[in-house]
Design a protein that fits this description.
heterodimer; A: mainly alpha; ABC transporter involved in vitamin B12 uptake, BtuC; two-stranded antiparallel ribbon; two-stranded antiparallel sheet; 14 helices; 4 strands; B: mainly alpha; about 5% strand; globular
């Protein structure tokens, strides 16, 4: 068995055990209704986390995604409600803005040699501030096309609904997995995260790849913003505050190393589902207060980090012993 | 060390601070007016110092952490926790000093936890402190049981809103901490050890520095600073708000350190410069408020100014401006 798959397998195993334990306590959790809502409710987080996975594998970080979600929601809402544009046109404009925004951050990180943490922090201020400059209020979206998409779903056996946004999230994960593991861009991202100097010496176009990574992250955050506005039928400048932390948490729980160079898009999917499970469990329980969500996510983060360290230490020792043998 | 920092008084940070203050003065003519009332100083400038004190205190601890090539994301959550502990203790009938001691103990414990994760378990600082950043605010809410705990304890209120020799208490505390920590790192070898660990931890360890102990102490100092800031913020509003106390202040503190010229890659740091960085951030916030601009421009302006400062500090700008820089340094000699 491939050693590098171990953290991923550990994450999957922990998710299955946690899910089984939750189902044992509340059998209702097993229904397709809950599973369908799982996908719908976490769609925007999942889509954001795919972009974050690429950023983190490349050794960077993107703190601006939550603000980009808020900005996109407001931009799309204003373009549709105040300017009367067709939603698809509004989406196209939002994507172009997000792509330019991500490209600017990538350029700043590469050419100004400022750490990604600080550049994307400034990006976060800019996007969040930009959203508040456009409007301070929640802008409702009353559009037939919007209601049509948001009410689109497949009926699952057992009364569950697989919504359009849930499917969209799965599609983004499949796209992300193919991009990471089957394309040249994907291998560049891994190479960059492993060792930027070696990557550049091996002929990886570092500047172009960095810009593309942050463009990808911003565009996916923009897509998540559109999904979020479909979900709430409104745009609000303070929407999705702190989602960047949830996304980073999901990526780390999914087994991706924050040092870069190692990780799986599928692991992030399991991470998002695990975060969703914690929230759903707390809602099902009903007696636990909302702050337990934060505490449990903190504990989960801690457990996964320690687990990863142990697994990596063990496999490193294993490698060494196999070399000497 | 003192000779170098004296020669650097005319640097990017002080010029930035002075220009932001002058800009505020142009937008709001009464900006530099300071009055003596009820035995203390009042005025916009004093307000900048007072409001900037919590971030400045966080920045002192953060700078030391960043200098070891780390980062402490948990300081905002630690502020909320220490405020919550202080408030709950006085409400439960304990005296003010006991509450302050309890809050400081919480900060120290959080710092030790972070330090052990980073130094003993070898976990990346950003992720090790993320654990407490996420869980800490939940724990703070657990302590206050989700409500805002209000109190009327004179000691805590004095720390938040009192004055000493005419200066607001937070400013006095921040200044004293800055002097204390600066002396500790620059008059002893500790500063050198911190820089050595930040540049290359294994090399520093091989050279005989007890890097594990050093890292744990540095994170503990950061936790203590966060606890002090938490007590100040709680004393200021006479209550502990677990949801909002110190929210996103870790980002402001990191920003203050970076604006102050501390390298996020470790090894280069200056505590007074970070405090100036915190004051630049606060001067921008106050400036936008007093000049009557809508506060929603606050973040955009902040992003703009950060970008400008980072561009000036970047190596690329150094190359482009190298010509002018050489000329200037030649003239000064």
């Amino acid at each position: 068995m491939n050693r590098s798959m171990r953290p991923l397998l550990a994450t999957v195993a922990i998710f299955l055990v946690a899910y089984a334990a939750a189902v044992f306590q509340f059998p209702g959790l097993l229904s397709t209704r809950v599973l369908g809502n799982f996908l719908t409710d976490n769609a925007f987080l999942g889509i954001t986390a795919v972009g974050m996975t690429f950023v983190i594998i490349s050794g960077g970080i993107d703190l601006s995604v939550g603000a980009v979600i808020g900005f996109t929601g407001v931009l799309v809402a204003v373009l549709i409600s105040s300017f009367g544009l067709h939603p698809l046109v509004a989406f196209a404009i939002a994507f172009v803005v997000a792509a330019l925004f991500g490209a600017a951050m990538g350029l700043a990180i590469h050419y100004l040699e400022v750490p990604a943490f600080i550049v994307t922090l400034a990006g976060m201020f800019l996007a969040r501030g930009g959203a508040s400059v456009i409007t301070q209020d929640s802008v409702p979206i009353n559009n037939e096309f919007y209601t049509m998409i948001s009410s689109l779903y497949f009926r699952l056996p057992g009364g569950g609904r697989l919504s359009f946004v849930g499917l969209l999230m799965i599609a983004v994960f499949v796209f992300g997995a193919i991009l990471a593991h089957r394309t040249r861009f994907g291998s560049y991202v891994y190479a960059l995260g492993g060792n930027a100097t070696s990557a550049s010496l091996m002929g990886v176009p570092v500047a172009r790849t960095t810009v593309q990574i942050y463009m990808l992250s911003s565009v996916l955050a923009c897509l998540a913003g559109i999904v979020f506005s479909l979900y709430t039928s409104a745009g609000y400048p303070l929407a999705a505050v702190g989602v960047e932390l949830d996304a980073i948490g999901a990526v780390v729980i999914g087994g991706t190393l924050l040092t870069g160079g190692y990780g799986f898009v599928f692991g992030t999917f399991v991470g998002v589902m695990l975060l969703g499970l914690v929230q759903t469990y707390i809602i099902f329980d009903g007696t636990l207060s909302s702050w337990w969500t934060k505490i449990v996510i903190g504990i989960l983060l801690f457990l996964f980090i320690v687990l990863q360290r142990l697994v990596f230490a063990a496999s490193a020792r294993g490698d060494r012993s196999s070399e000497t043998a | 060390m003192t000779r170098i920092s004296f020669g650097r008084i005319l640097n990017t940070q002080t010029i930035a601070l002075v220009s932001v203050l002058l800009l505020n003065w142009i937008l709001f003519p009464g900006f530099f007016k300071i009055e003596w009332q009820d035995g203390r100083l009042f005025g916009s400038l004093i307000d900048v110092l007072n409001r900037g004190a919590p971030v400045a205190i966080l920045a002192i601890g953060m700078t030391a952490v960043i200098a070891t090539k780390g980062v402490d994301l948990s300081v905002g959550a630690v502020m909320a926790m220490s405020g919550a502990v202080a408030a709950t203790l006085v409400v439960a009938g304990y005296s003010g000093p006991v509450a302050v001691g309890g809050a400081l103990a919480v900060g120290l414990a959080c710092g030790l936890w972070n330090g052990i994760l980073v130094a003993v378990l070898d976990i990346q600082p950003i992720i090790a402190t993320l654990v407490l950043m996420v869980a800490g605010r939940g724990i703070a809410q657990l302590i206050t049981e989700g409500s805002i705990v209000t109190f009327s304890d004179p000691t805590l209120i004095f720390i938040g809103t009192g004055s000493f020799l005419g200066m607001p208490m937070p400013v006095v505390i921040a200044f004293a901490l800055m002097v204390l920590v600066t002396l500790a790192v620059r008059k002893t070898a500790i500063g050198l050890f911190i820089e050595a660990v930040g540049i290359n931890r294994s090399a520093a360890t091989l050279a005989g520095i007890r890097s594990r102990l050093l890292l744990i102490s540095v994170y503990s100092v950061s936790g203590l600073c966060a606890a002090i800031a938490g007590i100040i913020v709680a004393g200021d509003i006479r209550g502990a708000d677990a949801n909002n106390a110190g929210l996103w202040l870790e980002l402001d503190a990191i920003l203050a350190a970076v604006i102050g010229g501390t390298s996020l890659l470790g090894g280069r740091f200056s505590i007074p410069m970070s405090v100036i960085g915190a004051l630049i951030i606060q001067a921008m916030n106050t400036g936008i408020l007093v000049s009557g601009y809508p506060p929603e421009f606050n973040l955009v302006v902040k992003a703009g100014i950060i970008t400008v400062i980072l561009m000036i500090q970047s190596p690329l700008a150094g190359q482009v401006l190298g010509f002018f820089g050489r000329k200037k340094s030649g003239a000064s000699r």
